[in-house]
Here is the input.
Amino acid sequence: MFYRLSGVYHTRYSQTRQLWPIPADRWQVGILFALALLAPLYMSNLYLSSYMLPWLIFSTATLALTLLMGLAGQLHFGFAAVMAIGAYTSIHLTRAGVPLEIALLGSGLMSAVIGCVFGAAALRVKGLYLVMATLAMQFLVDWVITNVTVISGGATATLQTPSVRFLFIPLQSLTARYYLALAWTVIVVLFILNIKRTSFGRALVAVRDKDFAAAVIGVNIFKYKLLAFFASSFLGGISGAILAFCFYKAVTPSQFNFDVTIQLVAMALVGGLGSVIGGFLGTGFVLLIPIVLLNLISWIVGNGWLNVSTSLMAHIPMMLYGAMIIGFLLFEPLGLAKIYDNARKYLLVWPFRHTQS
Here is the structure.
């Protein structure tokens, strides 16, 4: 059997600290990375630009939100505003002649600073009150972007991204933009995976579980809550800049409205809070499943197997999509990542079910 703990013997502490101690896990990660690396060779430009590219970029944004909501336990309903700050900052910096590499860092820092200002509310309030504070950030940033013409050019204006290079490679081709998004995805994944193994990650978990108890054992709640907002907003800001340069190639105020925030929160919840693989599964579910259902219903109607009106045909996929979300959350409230984890743990001991605890 390919998925076994039998035969895995740790003789050094470094082996026990591996990200993937089971060989089957390492093979899966290697195969998935190879498929992602070779995607431009076997995937058409349509699928690469319309499905793969937005899935990777929004997955990084979901992982950044998961760092805050899943690991630190701080609610955030203004994350699209964080991405908008990063997107507009990077465009204005590159238009001023700043190299893209530095512009991405600048966009992350600008998002982190502004995110920390509103995240400071988490030092005094929590729960629904924190939701209201982050909602205020979303609507305030939307208003500023829409009405301050120096930033966006106006409510209906479109700000084009300039022609730039990343590490001396022009970002004109789809392949170059895809590999930039993939590189950023790898960086974010490794960061989230390793942060859980550090004292910073353990402190965030302590704050999430019980902040008063964490303070009693010496965890500086003020420091770690602000650091959580800073790190999450920094990653979200760069993800917004990557989204602007690699996918949209232009930004408008409507691309980062409150609906996008709701989508990001849904991606994190459906995938599973605090899980890296859940970020990818939740993003794929929210972004791609409606498209798949729409194509499926259109195919069924086109073959004459279902006789419905055009308006009803447009609503059936969303009805099925909503029913699937409710079904998943009822079946496994911890998200799609937990379903995957249950299947993985079953394979670890199959067929000896009596060994499961």
About this structure: The two ends are 20 Å apart (CA to CA). The mean pLDDT is 85.
